[in-house]
């Protein structure tokens, strides 16, 4: 495929994701296979978008690191409580890899890539070569971007939808603080490993430097940002006033859960997206020079 065809394909995937997310806000029970659509589309987008900037083998390295670390630590937590806390997955999300649904692994890679790209553009690391403080600051910020996403959906997915069950409940509408600490630890580990992998190859992208347009960075920002916008949209739609109990029997208002997640989205995912878009507008008009060495 030509670069133009790939660009069109990426915009199409993004558009399908946006339309599906909007439809899901209004008709949450009418759309089948939501777990795999919402994890599969970011996964496919990340692979295609990534190979326009990195080598294909580098994206495979990122994929392998992400899948191994996330699945290993998720299974470890289910069995021992470290690092997320004590929980287990129901059958809501479909087939599992060991004790973790396959869709979860896809989501870690897809949203992980988007968080990585936003962290890069926010910090000004628009070249693929990893050097200086970027080796450590990009993984740290990418980790915060990932946890921001989890803050906008975990109480809905667990306490309301029962996709997974927190056995000891928690103060964030049935979700424990340990979950978010565990999330940051998990995603930071695989981001840091990928950063160190890139740093170990300082001359990897030094020779061929095609131009990447502002639109390329904007695609990743919109994809990440609309996930937060969808959480806000759900909060603005009238919600049932029913209550739902967590695993400890504590009752929570379903409306309060959804509205709070939307509120959190404004000051986390949407705020980060706004910052990234500002940074993108400041990039050179002719596009930034980035390397790709296939």
Quick structural gist:
The protein has 294 residues and is mainly α.
Describe the structure.
By secondary structure, the protein is mainly α. It has one domain (3-287). Helix content is 63%, strand content 7%. It contains 10 helices and 8 strands. It has helices at residues 3-26, 34-50, 56-80, 102-123, 134-151, 154-160, 177-199, 214-236, 254-267, 269-281, and strands at 87-89, 96-97, 100-101, 164-166, 211-212, 243-245, 251-253, 288-289. The strands form 4 sheets. A two-stranded antiparallel ribbon has the order 1-4. Strands 2-3 form a two-stranded antiparallel ribbon. Strands 5-8 form a two-stranded antiparallel ribbon. Helix 2 (34-50) packs across helix 4 (102-123), helix 5 (134-151) runs antiparallel to helix 7 and helix 8 (214-236) packs antiparallel against helix 9. The model is unreliable at 287-294 (pLDDT under 50).
Sum up the structure in keywords:
globular, two-stranded antiparallel ribbon, 7% strand, single chain, 10 helices, mainly alpha, 294 residues
Q: Helicity level, as a percent range?
A: 55-70%
Query: Order of SSEs, N→C?
Result: HHHEEEHHHEHEHEEHHE
Largest sheet: 2 strands, antiparallel
Q: Report, as a whole number of angstroms, the end-to-end distance.
A: 15 Å
Shape category: globular
Please write out the topology.
Layout (H helix, E strand, L loop, with lengths): L2 H24 L7 H17 L5 H25 L6 E3 L6 E2 L2 E2 H22 L10 H18 L2 H7 L3 E3 L10 H23 L11 E2 L1 H23 L6 E3 L5 E3 H14 L1 H13 L6 E2 L5
Antiparallel strand pairs: 1-4, 2-3, 5-8, 6-7
Helix pairs in contact: 1-2, 1-8, 2-4, 3-4, 3-7, 4-5, 4-8, 4-10, 5-7, 8-9, 8-10, 9-10
